[in-house]
Specification:
The chain has 322 residues and is an alpha/beta fold. The chain has 2 domains: 3-219, NADH:ubiquinone oxidoreductase-like, 20kDa subunit (Rossmann fold), CATH 3.40.50.700; 223-308, Cytochrome-c3 hydrogenase, C-terminal domain (Cytochrome-c3 Hydrogenase, Chain A, domain 2), CATH 4.10.480.10. The chain is built from 12 helices and 9 strands. It has helices at 3-13, 21-36, 53-59, 66-72, 87-100, 134-142, 153-157, 191-203, 216-219, 223-226, 230-234, 262-265; strands at residues 41-47, 74-79, 106-110, 113-114, 123-127, 130-133, 147-151, 170-171, 182-184. The strands form 3 sheets. It has a 5-stranded parallel β-sheet with strand order 2-1-3-7-9, sandwiched between helices. A two-stranded antiparallel ribbon has the order 4-8. Strand 5 (123-127) and strand 6 form a beta hairpin. Helix 2 (21-36) runs parallel beside helix 8. The longest helix has 16 residues, at 21-36. It is globular, with a radius of gyration of 20 Å. It is found in: Cell envelope.
Amino acid sequence: MQKEKFTELCRNLAQSDEHELTGTILPIVKEHMIKNKRNRLPVIWLETNDSGDNNISFMNTTFPYLGQVLSDMIDLHFSNTFMAAQGPDALNILEQVSLLYRDRFTLVVEGAIPVNNNGLLCSIALTNNRPITALEAVTNLGNLAQYVVAIGTCASFGGVSAARPNITGSVGVRDVLSREVINVSGCPVNPDWFVGTLAHLLMYGLPELDRLNRPALFYGYTVHRHCQRRSYFDKQDYAEKPGDIECMFSQGCMGPVTGADCPYRQWVNYTNWPVKANTPCIGCTNEDFPDGSAPFFTPLSEKAGEKDRKPGASNLFQGKGV
């Protein structure tokens, strides 16, 4: 499949009644690997300072299920969540794989990186009574990887882990590596965003990225643009309370300044998303989440961080949208 057709598939399938992007992608990936004599994408997955929500979301991928993604598309060599090996055996695998697949593996990082106290506030392992900090592991492995993917908003930009007062000094992966990082943000990430990004890396290399280094495939338009309640917004018909059917802008919805395709991608086996469940979008894919979204149920123009937003955002409140 040509790259342009793959891009069209990712965007259009989400808007169809079928939805099942991951299930549609896998046969394409298998055909590509056979035709081009390619192996599965080698992946090392590190979990650092986070809640583990992204790997749980990834496990919710359906049609096909997680096992098929692992067996048919990616070759997951190390993951503290998914692997059976523990202790020294796991660390030996990590060291051997990082050298064997040097400049060929994809490093996936889930969680922010604490930098205070020389990174000692988050360690991924202990060896010879010495902690291996997330800062050390990500820095070393990031320099050996072909691609680095930050999965989730904590890994991408700091996220909840870096929220005020951020006593751990948590930052995104991009802030500790002097190289390009692909940010697949979300709290948690949608499985399609992650699987689609890995498929693109395997078949075509680096995808087109937006100004925040997120794949434009999934973050190219705002939630507001395709929201099913957009017509209410255009008529300035706003909800009076959570649960009302009108536009959630009055309830603090961050859709006008949040890049994501949630309205038609949806979640939990493609059945729902926040506004459909009668609650506002909280902007979880944004660079300044959660501080920039707080307080959650306050209208966007009244939020504390609104004065710091980029010029031009105010035109969204006039019904123009992006």
